[in-house]
Amino acid sequence: MLIAVDIGNTNIVLGFLEGTKIIATYRMTTTSSHTSDEYGLMLNEFLHMSDYSDSDVEDVIISSVVPNVMHSFRAAIIKFFGVDPIVVGPGIKTGINIRIDDPRSLGADCLCDCVGAFGLHGGPLLVLDFGTATTYNYVDATGTITAGLITVGIRSGAAALSNKTAQLPEVEITRPTSVFATDTKSAMQAGLFYNFLGGVERTIAQFRSEVGKRFTVIATGGLGRIFEGETDSIDIYDPNLIFKGMRMIYDRNINH
């Protein structure tokens, strides 16, 4: 069994894979203060919840955009499972070309998303990841990432709204029932949702205008499910896209 680990700014998400089948996924809060023992104990607990033991773990692959978590997490993998994990980064084989000004600046999570999307659907395509930040990456028909866009994530926008205004509370990010809000909480939720959705649609429209030909829009990320089915601008929503990409990357690198 392969464990795929996506270490993001807000959450660490785990995928347990047997072949290409994703058996289970788990999510924990990203905390740089956790020790390797704490991470190891949490990983073991998730394994037991899925009826696995540490001896079932054949290998681990990690995608991380949080460098200060990597030391403890990698140490946990080595200590508890006896394997040195593959880390998505420079020098790893992905099957995807990167033609932006600084290829090393592309987040490992974005790279894995693009690998998964292109491997499953071919190109051209636009990969949209709803995370702490919202990212767009365009992959052409040859499997080359030629452009990217980064903007604020909806949860980050909500946090900024409550943190910078004295009388606005923190609110859950959710799909509103109506734009006709009658209280502060629902007014914030509806405002965030429709404002963000409009920005997504306008951004995709601009990509279409500048590309000048048809491409598929693949969305992923935990917050993407809020917008699933709410817009014709997104063709496919795949919450496990990153794990599928990591599986493909793993297969390209193991025993090579």
TrEMBL record:
SUPFAM superfamilies annotated for this entry? Actin-like ATPase domain
The entry's keywords = ATP-binding, Coenzyme A biosynthesis, Cytoplasm, Kinase, Metal-binding, Nucleotide-binding, Potassium, Transferase
Q: How is the cofactor bound, in the record's words?
A: A monovalent cation. Ammonium or potassium.
**Catalytic machinery residues:** D109
Where does this protein reside within or beyond the cell?
Answer: Cytoplasm
Source organism per entry reads Bifidobacterium aquikefiricola
Question: Which cofactor does the UniProt annotation name?
Answer: K(+); NH4(+)
Q: In which residues is ATP bound?
A: D6, I7, G8, N9, T10, N11, I12, V13, T132
Q: Provide the binding site for substrate.
A: G107, A108, D109, C110, T184
Domain of life, per the record? Bacteria
Task: Tell me if Heme is a UniProt keyword of this record.
Answer: no
The task this protein performs is described as:
Catalyzes the phosphorylation of pantothenate (Pan), the first step in CoA biosynthesis.
How this chain assembles, per its entry, is: Homodimer.
Enzyme superclass (EC): transferase
Q: What is this protein called?
A: Type III pantothenate kinase
Signal peptide (UniProt feature, chain positions): none
Q: Which residues bind K(+)?
A: D129
Query: What are the annotated GO cellular component locations?
Result: cytoplasm
The chemistry this enzyme catalyses reads: (R)-pantothenate + ATP = (R)-4'-phosphopantothenate + ADP + H(+)
**Which pathway is recorded for this entry?**
Cofactor biosynthesis; coenzyme A biosynthesis; CoA from (R)-pantothenate: step 1/5
Gene that this polypeptide is encoded by: coaX
EC no.?
Answer: 2.7.1.33
Q: Which InterPro entries match?
A: ATPase_NBD (IPR043129), Type_III_PanK (IPR004619)
